[in-house]
Amino acid sequence: MTEKSERAVDHQYFIRAEPAAVFRALTEPAWLTRWLCDSAEISARPGGSYRLSWNGGPTHTGTIVDFVPGAKIALAWRWPGVELDGTVFSLAVEPWEGGALLRILHTGFPRREEWTDLYGGAEWGWTYFAMNLKSVLENGHDLRAKPDG
Q: pTM value?
């Protein structure tokens, strides 16, 4: 069996909320700051830009590489201060049995030692923040600890 040359974060989460509400939470700055970051700017369209910042932490900036209103947004994802780039972070929403299915797909992690920590951080981080999004939308409760944002 041949080992793939790249790794990807590939998760799905069921959220008891209308798909339109989930999509708003992924694409509107006021919602992004309720579950993900401390400050957000986003021009939700293909070729648009985004900026996500955490107080005392990183600021991610980049370009929107794919956008389907109400269904999908994909970001060219970069890490500040790291010369490695080339990953794409995608969020897709679809109706599912009285709620929404959120798919998180973060691709483009080469199977090289210098990418191991970034890949592991993406696996952990997207799980953490997806569960927080679920909590915010289902219960109105932000699970982040103060140092997280």
A: 0.90
Q: Where are the domains of the chain?
A: 6-141
Using CA atoms of 111, 74, 49, 44 in order, give the dihedral in degrees to the nearest 10. Answer: -170
Segment holding 119, helix H or strand E: helix 116-139
- 6-141 homologous superfamily: START domain (3.30.530.20)
Question: Residue 30 corresponds to which tokens in the numbers above?
Answer: 């006021």
Mean pLDDT, consecutive 10-residue stretches, the chain (149 aa), reads 81 98 98 97 97 92 96 89 81 97 96 90 95 97 76
Decide: helix, strand or coil at residue 14: strand
- Let me know if 37 is exposed, middle or buried by CB neighbors in 10 A (0-12, 13-18, 19+): buried
State the Cα–Cα distance between residues 110 and 12, nearest whole angstrom. Answer: 22
Q: What is the DSSP string of 46-64?
A: TT-EEEEE-TTS-EEEEEE
At which residue do the structure tokens 């974060």 appear? 9
